[in-house]
Amino acid sequence: AGLDEADEAVRGTCEDASVCKRFAVSVGYWKDPYIQYFVRQAKERKAPEINRGYYARVHGVSYLIKAFLKKTDCNCQIVNLGAGMDTLFWRLKDENLLPRKYFEVDFPMIVARKIHNIKSKPPLSKPIMESHSGDSLLIDSHSLDSSRYSIVGADLRFSSDLEEKLKKHNLDIHLPTLLVAECVLVYMTPQQSANLLKWAASTFPVAMFINYEQVNMTDRFGQIMIENLQRRQCNLAGVEICRSLDSQRERLLLNGWETARAIDMMKVYSFLPQADVKRSCEHNILIYLLEGTHEPRSHSNCLLLETRSQK
Ligand code: SAM
């Protein structure tokens, strides 16, 4: 695929994430009243494994983000890299946990879509207005800058352009800064993601980086996922970095970060609220039982199981 086509396929992954999140939210895995405003597609049922995976991912990432906010008393900034249609800004505002400023970065085309949604949906625009003070709210089709929330259209592979745009929106490199990349680095070459990590490590004197990404995609599910993305011409340029937790840690340590820790999602899953996990385990057993009866595992089977797991 040409560069543009490959980038277009990468941009499409943002739709995948929001569709899956919305479905999991609609069947009660976690609460997010905002995701519905960002999804165009009709409600599409997802397999329980996918819902559980997203649940653990959203829970794990927000757990770490909240720990950073508490540690800094919210006197910090968050930079969400490749944020797509993420709704964290709104959820943090509802919980009274906004940092001094929350930045999002994505390709200009994705940013334009997000801004369009914000402009046309009052439940999205109102919280931004409410948290805004002063008179400098800037909003055009490719960027939005308010006092607490800002979206920047930029390509993460070009860090000097990225930095310039963020600084125009009053990024303060001296504030403790939390950078978040959720399923983003895998779409860049190892060289490009190394540059981004190096830029972040050398730009912010006090910072933490949360990276959520696939590792060890050699199992059956990993292979299915890779094939699926490749069929759509999506370039998984960074997949070779994702061999193991060690290679993830090493990448951070080699690019200017002092310490790095990595845990796999099975462990995260075991730390999740036990009532939820128990519920989904029952769920799992039910699925296997059903599979054991050799009935085809159709969507309606999943529907039944989803509903039972909610009781
Ligand atoms: N972080 C969001 C989430 O977890 O819901 C979206 C994840 S989606 C799988 C990957 C996102 O990264 C897409 O929105 C895509 O446009 C963005 N992205 C990937 N490469 C990028 C680049 N070079 N510059 C800017 N954004 C990029």
UniProtKB/TrEMBL annotation:
GO terms, molecular function: protein C-terminal leucine carboxyl O-methyltransferase activity
Domain of life: Eukaryota
Assigned keywords, A-Z: Methyltransferase, S-adenosyl-L-methionine, Transferase
Recorded catalytic activity of this chain's protein: [phosphatase 2A protein]-C-terminal L-leucine + S-adenosyl-L-methionine = [phosphatase 2A protein]-C-terminal L-leucine methyl ester + S-adenosyl-L-homocysteine
One Gene Ontology cellular component: cytosol
Known EC number: 2.1.1.233
One annotated GO biological process: methylation
Family to which this protein belongs: Belongs to the methyltransferase superfamily. LCMT family.
Function recorded in the entry: Methylates the carboxyl group of the C-terminal leucine residue of protein phosphatase 2A catalytic subunits to form alpha-leucine ester residues.
Name of the protein described by the UniProt record: Leucine carboxyl methyltransferase 1
Species: Accipiter nisus
High-level lineage: Eukaryota, Metazoa, Chordata, Craniata, Vertebrata
